Prior knowledge:
The complex is a heterotetramer of chains A (210), B (477), C (665) and D (301).
Chain A: H1 4-20, H2 24-45, H3 49-74, H4 89-109, H5 121-138, H6 142-162, H7 169-196, H8 199-204
Chain B: H1 4-18, H2 28-46, E1 50-52, E2 57-59, H3 61-87, H4 94-112, H5 116-134, H6 140-173, H7 182-188, H8 194-212, H9 220-227, H10 230-283, H11 289-310, H12 314-343, H13 354-357, H14 359-372, H15 379-393, H16 397-422, H17 439-457, H18 461-474
Antiparallel strand pairs in B: 1-2
Helix pairs in contact in B: 1-2, 1-4, 2-3, 2-4, 3-4, 3-10, 3-12, 3-17, 3-18, 4-5, 4-10, 5-6, 5-10, 6-8, 6-9, 7-10, 8-10, 9-11, 10-11, 10-12, 10-16, 11-12, 11-15, 11-16, 12-14, 12-15, 12-17, 12-18, 14-16, 14-17, 15-17
Chain C: H1 2-13, H2 16-20, H3 27-53, E1 58-66, E2 69-74, H4 77-100, H5 107-129, H6 133-151, H7 158-189, H8 203-221, H9 229-236, H10 239-262, H11 269-291, H12 296-323, H13 327-362, H14 373-376, H15 378-391, H16 398-412, H17 424-427, H18 429-452, H19 469-487, H20 489-492, H21 497-505, H22 511-515, H23 520-523, H24 526-550, E3 556-559, H25 577-580, H26 582-587, H27 589-592, E4 595-597, E5 612-614, H28 618-636, H29 646-662
Amino acid sequence: MFTLTTLLELVLLLNFFVLGASRLRTAVNLVAVQGMLLGAAPLWLEHGPRVVLLSLGTMAVKGILIPRLLLYAMRDQTIGPEFRPAGGFIASLLLGAVGTGASLWFGGTLPLHNGEHSQLIVPASLATTFAGFVMLFTRVKTISQSLGYLVLENGVFIFGLLLIEAVPAMVEIGVLLDLIVAVFVMGIIIQHINRELDPLEVQHLSSLKE
Amino acid sequence: MAVYLVVLPALAALAALLVPSDRWRPWLLPLGSGLHVACLASLIRSGETVSQFDGWLVLDSTAKVFMLAIGVLHFLCMLYAPGYLALRPERPNRILCACMLASLAMMSLVVLSRHLGLMWVAVEATTLVTAPSIYFNHNARSLEATWKYLLICSVGIALALLGSFFLAYSALYAGLKPTLLFDDLMAAAPNLSRPWLHAAFILLLVGYGAKMGLSPMHTWKPDAYGEAPGMVGALMAGGVTSCVFLAVLRIYQIAVRGGDGAFASRTMIFFGLLSMLTAAVFMVRQRDFKRMLAYSSVEHMGILVFGVGLGGAAIYGVLLHVINNALAKGVLFLSAGNIHRAYGSKLTDHVTGAMRGLPLSGSLFLFGFFAGCGSPPFSPFVSEFSIIAAAFRERHFIGAAIFLAALMAVFLGMGATVLGITLGKPSRPPQQAAFADGAWTGAPIVLLMSLVLLLGLYLPPFLSDLVNQAAASLAMN
Amino acid sequence: MNLLMASIAMIAVSGLPGAVLDKRRLGGQFLATLFSAAGSICGLYAVGRWLAAGGQSDLRIPWTLVPGADFHVGLDGLSAAFLLPIFLISMLGSIYGQGYWRQSEHAENGRKLRLFYGLCAAGMASLVVARNSVVFLFGWEVMALGAFMLVATEDDQPSVAEAGWLYLVATHAATLTLFGLFGALWAICGTFDLPADGSKLAPAAANTVFVLALLGFGFKAGIMPLHVWLPSAHANAPSHVSALMSGVLIKMGVYGFLRVSSFLPEPPLWWGGLLLALGVVSGVIGLAFAVAQQDFKRLLAYSSIENIGIIFIATGLALLGRATHRADWVLLGMGGAVWHVWNHALFKALLFYCAGSVIHAVETREINLLGGLGKRMPWTAFCFVVGATAVCGLPPLNGFVSEFLIYVGLFGTLGIPDAGATLPAAALAAPGLALIGALAVACYATAMAGIFLGAPRSSRVEHAHEARWTMLAPMFALAGGCVFVGLAPGVVAPAIDPAIAAWTSAAPGGSELAAALIPLAERAPLGWLSALGLSLVAMLALGGVVLAARLRPRFVSSSVTWGCGYVAPTARMQYTSTSFSEILTGLFRWALGPRVNRPKIDELFPQSASFASSVPDSVLERVIRPGLNWIAERILWFRVFQQGNVRAYLFYMFAALVLLLIWPH
Amino acid sequence: METAIHLLTVLLLPLVLRGVINKTKAAFAGRVGPPLLQPFYDVIRLAQKDSVISETTGWVFRAGPVVGLATVLLASLLAPFGRESAPVSFSGDVFLFVYLLALGRFFMAIASLDTGSAFEGMGVTRELTFSALAEPALFFGFLVMASLSRSLSLSEMLGESFGPQWQTSSASLVLVLVSWFIILLAENSRIPFDDPNTHLELTMIHEVIVLDHSGPALAMILYGASVKLLLFCSLIVQMLSPFDSGYALVDAGVFVVETLVLAAFIGVIESTMARLRMPDVPRLLVTACVLSAFGIILLPH
């Protein structure tokens, strides 16, 4: 009943929620949920100790570790809880919808292996990647941009599901490791930004220009 | 044996973390880098291709050329480091030293790795490792520069990961065992599924192009190189971008072997010329000479990619240009660092008469500029001239004309800034006598400059054989 | 050939010992001149021996730099013809530099100057003997960068830095054009050899190669539209460097053009015609600018543009000769061109040395502040008169001989000696050349008067003193050279024939044209010229003796100049260079565009007013500088893409990705 | 024998020409005028006088007149008088002829500038500019002559009688004749361009150049100027005379008579015209250039 396709549909839904979220804290939690779901996804595809270990690791990292890092980085921030995307909610939601439509169409064009996996994987990954991009374009604050990066990373991870048996474990771990370190460094920088720069400037971070 | 190239610097990085005193730690840098170069030299002298971990780490002739460029530049920059860090006692340099050595390790890994996934991990690692070194100056501007560098490169590399997965899937779709090993992919290339390969090539090109600083993904470069210390700028402009260029080269090989050669070569030529024109446009009336050097790096990446797009005889020029560009960028960035520190400002309206104020760094900066623009007695001329000649041979006349026009426009923009800085009466005597031309901060640049001059006049036989072998192995169309 | 390469190496290294020694002592200075002189003499001997006896003229060393191009140098007629002035002028320049740029007076840039002087001279010599384009480009750029460092010697003055930058832009544009030219040649002919195999060039390719060569080498030669860098570079460089640049460096542009045009097959008529037109325009407009200059080194620089125009007229005639297969025109055209290259090297270097000794004495280049220097610097004045007479092409001296050959050649296009194909249009260049000659007389008479004759116009002239002997010796050597070549052209002619033969035989199918070439001495009545020159000198001597007898102090009483009875003439009443050129500037107003700021007197009792007029270089000030500024303003708009907004940067990447994905492959 | 006649003509005829011109002008003005041989007496008188030399001048001032005279005498050896060829003639002597006159002009200019007075500066600027405009016209004429006579030597160019040429290409010959006559008036500072015996500095060109010379130097200048006048007259007379008697003496006599008639004609021109305004002089010279340039186009090929 709870097949991979429905899981992917849930993930797509979460994309919209994250795009529409008005409070930063809810956005982080939503991304955490999305991470958990994706962590569990490999179980549907393949069985074996390696896969279980892998999915547990992913769930731990994407679901728990990274959100904690972001919340820790956010804790003494002076930026208000609410965060409005630059173009306003409706615009980013619309963009999200258009993106999902486009990725569904583009997914269709790419010939899918008549694999046993659900037809939804490629479009879902493209949609999530696009959602990540939309967040990167529209959100102003550093925290939300790193969130956008995380959603983008999830999109890429979805596509990774197709190749679970192909890509060796070592590379999978490497990818996860890089993700952790990336977010870790981003968190440190966000902390430094909040400490060094006054809030106004944080908004725009555009002193370096021609 | 080849893995030592990665392990040695990594160990040195760890050691750097452990050494407590700020005064002794910088001396680890030349040590680590020196070991790396010594090991590389012995590998090159042994001559044959070294392969380890069943084909995952391979040191073939192309890898040797890239390793040589990165290794030599890194060693000379590390020679420069102690002198530089001694002048900056107020900044703790634990993270910087560690990051420098770690970046060498990661760069070696990128050059050696034949598995595209592993290569992706290494490239991501270089980004994460160089980010803190940009933030060395700990002021608001360098913080912003680091944030932008990290964000743009990470997004780019995420796309590259998606591209790698597309590539693996193209093998899966074609009924082969999905693999990311370069040799298997090259073997299976002709019957990879065409649309997946096409999409993969585009994603990988845009992804790694962002890391390499090709226009329009170059926007982080002026900020990052502008705010990083000269030494870090040299390493990034000469080392990191070169090793990512090797990644792009690998992908281009697969795309051409996979039958998508026409589109791939046209895209590469387009990106090459676009980067050169962007560099030319943004160098006009540039008031900050470090940002100017960043755009010069964008231009030279454009030249490399343009050369690869041409193929044929241009490959020899491209491989030689990797080495020449690394050395020339080393000279320019290190001498620019000296001038910046001595005059306390990067803006052309505060800095004039550098050749009189700082005789050594000023003249090295001026002759580095001549070298960068491809003037004959210096080595970049050889590579740029063979690329132009190849452009004519491949009958890309319009491309060659735009290439020459872009070179002239870059010369006009860059020359106005460089001559504004070097000629004339010194605007302000160097802040402290300490920042005048020292032995330790001057000798590495002189070594780099003499290498640029030597390679411009005479190519040692071992190097020319290496480059010819590499060019032969890369010769596609 | 090995001796020649050794001498080039010696000249290249001539500056190094000086650079090492302490900048106070004069040791470095003597060593530099010693090396340079020794290298030049060996070089001259080697070329002389080759001209006389022929011998080994090729040297090929394997060189792994650019695949397919090894270090191949050689000596043929054309190279020998251009090597002689290089060695001669660089040697004399180095000796002149002893007195003019003494190390003790110019401590901080003296060593730099000598270092790059040697490198620049060596670069010129190596590019002339280069037999493949890579070695040619090496010599070319070493010369160009060396000359830039020489021009920017006193770069603490803003005008010098500006001149250096202008020169650098022009020379780099030339270099990039040459990159394109030699790249195209390599792509078409398959090899880097310099006298490439012209037969592979289709007419369209030959036309592109011709245009690229004209642009690339025209920039360095300073032919009219591409001359913008020349006046400011020559004016701001130290005088013996200006002499080296004007006498020899711009001739490298001519050599390059001759070398490339020598192997182009079947030159169409419009090539020669274009050169003739460019030559006449450069000559006439160049001199119009020269007359209007107030800085005498800029005047000499514009006069160099005029002489380059004359050389291009002769080259155009030679190309027409090859187009119509008339050996006679080729002989006279190429003979006139090469001979004028030699003559110009001699008298222009002499004039710049005189200018140098004047600057050394009065530290200014303003003609309007000088006057009356003839009495304080008699020898420099005498040399200037000899140089001026030679540069105007007046009979007894060498300028006349080469212009005579060009005239006979141009009149030949009317089918004068033998009724072959006639090109009356080409003959129209002859009156152009006459106009150039007459304008040169006007220009140099007023320059000579402005500096040396009349009463001193300012206090600067009071403490002027004659130049040191190390400066006068090269001047007398060059003056002697001008007189010798003028009075004994027959001796010099045989040295030019190999150059003409080399130029004609390099073209595919040019050998039968080369066979029809007769020695220059037989074609032109050089014997008559020397006879009449000697008789003119005899008559002058006789008249001088007669007049001297009648002007003995007994018969002469001196008084104030007879200004029609005006008893209190002041020096300020004399004509200045601006007033000398007022009529001519008016006639050429359309080309010169003089800037005159007349005082606007509007109140009843006008206060003190000042009048200033200047003639800036119209191509530079009216076309290039405003053009580049306009483009720069437009380009600055693009900065909107780099305004620091990360989100925009990410959007550029996304846009690039989407565009590529939907691009129809 | 021919060279003897030639030298004799060069020695005596020039000053007679100047006398004839003054005599004609006097006749027009209803005056008796100075005796025909007055120029001879002037030259002899000046040769014996002492000279007054300004102290601002140097050796250039003294060398000027000598060079002026020497160049003109040497040039006269090249020009053919009557039907015989000139004492010295080789292919290309036409260029030597023109450039010798230019050398003379150059040294006369710097000599007069050596005095450092404003008047000489005025005269030299005008003289050099106008002669610069006159040279191309001369060369266009020589182009026509050379292509008609197929030779570059003055003697062959102007030596033979012009009978046949007048039939075939009379149009271009007329044009060249007119333009050369204008050049003659300009170069020898006759009325339309410059008034030889005026003393208002603002209007003088040639006279003001010799303002400061005195004594024997002035004599040389006077004699040199007259020889120059003869040379230009010979150019035109040689073109006009179709007559070829074959005897040296008879031809020389005919040449002398024709030159005197031309001198009288110049006198007539000077009496009937006033001096041109200074800006009009370049326009007239440019028209002379254009005239002789059209001469080439109308040449029969």
